[in-house]
Amino acid sequence: MINIPNILTGFRIFLIPVFVIFYYLPVEWSSFSAALIFFIAGSTDMLDGYLARKLNQSTAFGAFLDPVADKIMVAVSLVMIVEHYEVIWITIPAMIMICREIIISALREWMAELGERASVAVSWVGKIKTVAQMLSLFLLIWQDSSEMEWVGFTLLYVATALTLWSMVVYLKAAWPALSKNS
């Protein structure tokens, strides 16, 4: 159960409170530091999955913990961005993203109980959504310039559109099992 990919996932979870502390430090370099920590956490996400496959160290515990770590990091980041900007046009995309994560997590759990987990596996739309979402959050956390923020806002809306699209893809894939067992 203890292997390099799981250690990296655990490290990502450890970084969440560190990220929050650095974000709120009353110093000039806090947003850059928080963005750097967010980037490191995101990098460990890619690295742990790669290493789990490459080293043949995939575990049930890692399969459970990895998406949990990702969802916590994204949810915490979204809440912080909403709190920072205090405008509805940031709040609504954040709500959509958090609600989608809850819906898809519940869907995957239910589909796993039905023995249909493979029908709601991560799709390419979900992967592109994650890249847009993480880049958007990185830019909105850093807040180095108004241009950077506008790119972040744009990517936030791209990620929101992909969030809705990927949710429809997952629900469509699961619909035969859902309608059969209702």
What would you note in describing this structure?
- With 182 residues, the chain is an all-alpha fold.
- The chain folds into two domains: 1-73; 87-182.
- It is 84% helix and 0% strand.
- It contains six helices and no strands.
- The chain has helices at 4-24, 30-54, 60-85, 88-113, 124-142, 146-180.
- The longest helix is centred in the last third of the chain and has 35 residues, at 146-180.
- The radius of gyration is 17 Å and the shape is globular.
- The model has no long low-confidence stretch (mean pLDDT 91).
How many strands, what sense, and barrel or not for the largest sheet? none
Mass-distribution shape: globular
Ends: how far apart? 36 Å
Domain count, please report it: 2
Mean pLDDT: 91
Helix amount: over 70%
Q: Are there runs of 5+ residues with pLDDT below 50, and where?
A: none
Q: SSE order, as H and E?
A: HHHHHH
Count helical runs.
6
What's the β-strand tally?
A: 0
Strand percentage: under 5%
Structural category is: mainly alpha
Radius of gyration: 17 Å
Present the secondary structure layout.
Blueprint: H1 4-24, H2 30-54, H3 60-85, H4 88-113, H5 124-142, H6 146-180
Helix pairs in contact: 1-2, 1-3, 2-5, 3-4, 3-5, 4-6, 5-6
